[in-house]
Please model this.
Amino acid sequence: MVKLFIKSIAILLLGTALYSCNLYPDDGTRVDDLDVVITLYDRTVDFGDYKTYYIIDSVAQINPDLGGQPIADNPLNEKNQELILDLIRVNLESRGFEEEERNARAADLVVNAGSITVSNINISSTYPNYYYGYAGGGWGYPGDYWGYPGYGYYYPWGPVYSVTEYEVGTLMIDIADSNVDTTLNRIPILWSGILRGVTNLTSDADVRNRIQIGINQAFEQSPYFQSN
Amino acid sequence: MIKKIFFFGSLIAALFTSISDINAQDKEGPAEVYASGDHMFGITYNMSIPDGKFRDFIEKTSFRGFSLDYESFIMDNLSLGLNAGYAVYDEVKDKQTVDVNLSSTAGATIHAKVWKYTHVVPIELKSRYYYSPDPNSWVHLFGGVGVGTSYVNQELWVGLQEIRQDYWRFSISPEAGFDISTNGSYNIQISTMYQYILNGQNSDEDFGAYTIRIGFRKWIN
Model:
C-alpha cells in the first residue's frame, strides 16, 4: 500500500517534469499562431477629417543594416506587391476614403508600405500590458514622395525598446498626414500597421493568405480610422 | 488575500486552542504523533489554483508542482523545518485583441496569440503542530505556517517574443491537513495551503494560490 502510494507520487513528479518540457511555443507551433498584428495611432487626430489618400506604388524591402534604405533585390515583395497595395486600397475605400492618384501633396493622407527582415524588432512593456513596434525614423527616402526630400518620419509614440532573438519578416504600413511639419522637417505619421511574421518564407499561397488576414485585421482593429 | 490568510490562521489557531483545551482536561497530555528529536524528510505533489490578482493573469489550475520538506521536532508534535518547492502555471490565450494606451497622444492595439507563464520557487522556514484525537488513531491533524521568500518568474510570449520579469519576494503559507500513519517508516500527508507572496504578481500586486498537497513523510533518524 505504502509502496504503491510512493510509486504514484513518483509517477506524478516524473509526469510533471516531462510535461513541463512541453510548455513553450517551439518548432511544432503553427507559423500563423506566431503572427502578430500591431496598430499604433495618434490619439489626438480625428481621422474623420481626412477624405483622400495617395498610396506609394511600390512595397520597399528595407534593410536595417543599410540605415533603413530599401534594397534592390526584392523578390518576395514583387510577387505580393499588388496584393498588399490592393488590400490597403479596399480597406481604406470601405472606410470612406478616396484615392488621389496624381500626387501625394494633393491628398490628405499618404500611405507607404514596406517590409523588413529584422532580428531585433522592438518591444516595450508596462507588464502585463504590452506593445511593440519598430523604432521610428528608419525608412530614409519616403519624404521624396511628398516633395520634401530629407524629411524624416515622426512617430508620436516614439522609439520603443527591444527584446528578442528571432529573425522575422514584418510588413509595415505607415499612413501620414500630407501636411508635413516644415519647421521640424518631419512627416507626421498618424497610423502604423505592423504585421509581424507574415513575410516569413513559407509557401507562396500561405504568405498571401497571411498577408490578407493580417492587413484586414489591422484595419478591423482600428475602428476609429474612418472618414466622415 | 489577507482574509484568506486570516481564515487559515484562524483554522490553525482553532486547532491549537482545541489541543490546549484537551491538554487542560487530560493530564497525560496530547497523544504523541511525532516525538521530540524526530527528523522527517518529505516529498509532496502539489496542485495549485490561482487566486486574487494572480488569477487576472492566469486562471488555469497548475498540475505541475512539488515540494521537498525537512522537519525537525523540537518537542513532541511541534516541528521546525525547511520547505522548498516549485510550481509552474501556464495558460494559452488564442488570438485576441488588446488595446493599450501608450501615452496621452499615442495608442496601440495588438492582435496575437499569447502564451503566459509563472514559475514559483518558495523557500520557507516552516513550523507545524500535529494533533491526534486518540493515541490509537491512525489519522492525525496538523496545522502550520511557512514564512520565507519566493522566487517568481513571469513570462508573456507574443509570437516568439518574450516579456519576462523575475524577482524574489516575501512569502507566507498557512497550511492545514491530515497526517495518515502507515505503521511503517512513512506517513502519508494530505493538506491544503494558501500561498501568499507580497508583490508577487506583476512585481507590485499580491500573488495568491490555493494549493492541494499530497505526499509522504519519512523518518530519517
Notes: The helical segments of chain A are 2-20, 75-94, 143-146, 204-220.
